[in-house]
Write a structure and sequence with these properties.
Elements lengths: L1 E5 L3 H13 L3 E5 L2 H8 L7 E5 L7 H11 L6 E6 L4 H9 L4 E4 L4 H33 L9 H18 L3 E8 L2 H8 L1 H18 L5 E6 L2 E7 L3 H17 L2 E3 L2 E3 L3 E8 L10 H20 L5 E5 L1
Parallel strand pairs: 1-2, 1-3, 3-4, 4-5, 11-12
Antiparallel strand pairs: 6-8, 6-11, 7-8, 9-10
């Protein structure tokens, strides 16, 4: 566990450092509140901080207030080191955001117990954050491919569509569908089909721009959202995806597979004749992409067709 000691008294600071190092804590040191706040708000900040109440530039109490104001995660356990013994002072420190306090001169065993309590709370906080993040990923990502699931990609599409309306910038989407996917499942089994979906998703993620989004729309169908992208650029991206998917070899036990993909591109670029773009228009763009995809299928598959709204 990493601990910050912020104490302007050199003797007390060295004593605390010596004790904590002996207890096998990783120790960081500063002698003023401004530096302490900067360290605690940084990435990979210490989980526990021992803050002297009275310090230059910013008091320990003021540091506590600032830390709690930011609501930083994971949780930082704050211990005030103080010579103040009045109950009202200690209550004031706790109300400012401190979790605990130690009065000077401190007892080593008392310090050890309070640090153990702080360590348990910090570790519990980290576990809860990890569990929350895992639940968030499970709720928004496709469990097979790791890309966004249908609900999440549609939510992204809705947000980017609204942004395009506000900023009067083009937006394109691609509906991509793997060709003859059922035959792969029937001939090689569903594990082979799963591997095809995973490999195809990986190709899409690697090719797309940082601000593009790809999600599994259903079965072997994918929805790709391209903010600020006109029809010509979207078609180029779709053509490159088709080529990469077609040329990629997918290894399954005993076989090497090659698959193709048909793509329909739909673009909204002209806002002049539309007073207000709403969800209906978003659904219309999706329907147009579906029509373009249907045309690609009818034209022999493994190709791209584009339409406009």
């Amino acid at each position: 566990m990493k601990i910050l000691i912020s104490e302007d008294d050199d003797v007390s600071r060295r004593m605390l450092e010596s004790i904590l190092v002996k207890w096998q804590y990783e120790v960081m040191i500063t002698d003023n509140g401004i530096d302490a706040l900067s360290i605690l708000l940084s990435d990979n900040a210490p989980g526990i901080a021992i803050l002297d109440w009275m310090m230059p530039q910013m008091t320990g109490v003021e540091v506590c207030k600032e830390i709690r104001k930011h609501g930083k995660e994971p949780y930082t356990y704050l211990i005030l080191l103080t010579s103040k013994g009045r109950k009202e002072d200690l209550v004031y420190g706790i109300e400012a955001g401190a979790d605990d306090y130690i009065t000077k001169p401190f007892n080593m065993q008392e310090l050890k117990v309070r640090l153990r309590a702080g360590t348990r709370i910090v570790e519990l906080s980290e576990q809860l954050i990890s569990a929350r993040d895992a639940m968030q990923i499970a709720a928004t990502h496709d469990s097979l491919t790791g890309i966004w699931n249908r609900a999440a990609i549609f939510d992204t599409f809705k947000k980017e569509f609204s942004r395009a309306n506000r900023e009067k910038k083009p937006i394109s989407i691609i509906l991509a569908d793997l060709d003859f996917f059922k035959k792969i499942n029937d001939r090689y089994g569903h594990p082979a089909g799963d591997e095809v979906l995973r490999e195809t998703s990986k190709i899409m993620k690697e090719l797309l721009r940082q601000y593009d989004t790809c999600g599994r729309y259903g079965g072997e169908e994918f929805l790709i959202v391209l903010p600020g992208c006109n029809s010509e650029t979207a078609s180029v991206i779709a053509q490159r995806l088709c080529h990469l998917i077609e040329s990629h070899i997918i290894n399954i036990p005993g076989h090497q597979l090659k698959v193709t993909c048909s793509m329909g591109v739909a673009t909204l670029a002209n806002f002049d004749d539309i007073d207000k773009i709403d969800l209906k228009d978003m659904n219309m763009l999706l329907k147009i992409a579906d029509v373009a995809l249907y045309q690609a299928k009818n034209d022999g598959r493994n190709c791209v067709r584009s339409l406009f709204l």
